[in-house]
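Mods, move this if it's the wrong board.
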Amino acid sequence: MATPQKSRLGRGLGGLISAAKPPVTAAPAPVPHAPLSPGYLEIQVGQVEPSPYQARREIAPEQLTELAESIRSEGLLQPIVVRRHGDKYQLIAGERRWRAFQQLKIKAIPARIVEASDASAASIGLIENLQREGLNAIEEAQGFASLVRDFDLTQETAAERVGKSRAAVANSLRLLSLDAEIQGYIAKNLLSVGHAKVLLGVEDPAGRAVLARRVIEEGLSVRTTEKLGKSAKGVQGTKAPARGRALAARDAAAVESIQRKLTSYLGARVAVIHTPKKGRIVIEYRGNEDLQRLLEKMGAERAEPA
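Not the wrong board. Structure tokens:
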């Protein structure tokens, strides 16, 4: 039985597709396709282009490989959703499925073609990701921000489009006021949204960064973080001088660059928690086989976990 939230999202998605108006453009050139079933077509993978409004910022390589193997063995369970865009098709929902087909080198993919304006296409894509629970908290916030910024919507209107309360959207958008370093920790699930709310109450950027790193390093609970956040002695202190803030920003950029390189090399999500005296590298893996792959990639001795 679907939850009330899922039902609201489902109704919102159907309403957006049926009520959306097509963008005013010249009639597109015909795109080759083969009939599939009523309401669906099989279109060429090469004729599909990604959406500029995609909320998802990261697609983990191991998750894409896992999806590709599932499609290879079971087939595609849910077609992608696209709209016509010139002489091609633009994705509205299903970017991971589309990329999995590319990885499998399959030339055609089942798709549902809808008429949708830019705002509706962005809303539908965000709803689809919310339904699948495939976005991290920062990606979700960036999706809401895109609706508000790119389509001149109020927070209340954006909330109605995706079946959320205005308060939920407002709280989500607050996460984007945090420093890029802390947003990165939240995106990698090293910090929870509960921790993020506490950090939002710490005014000093340097103090926020110190507390965020301590939460991760010591595995602190939200309640303990709240106590530290209220402690002027441990967290607020005096604001760091301009030179100190500049060095902190430079260090954050360097750490982000290292994370990207390690993620690309290992094919797994990597987080680098850095402090001047010590740090930690966190590598995510999915199951024993993925762990063994990472060990071999790093030249470590083979070992089978219990």
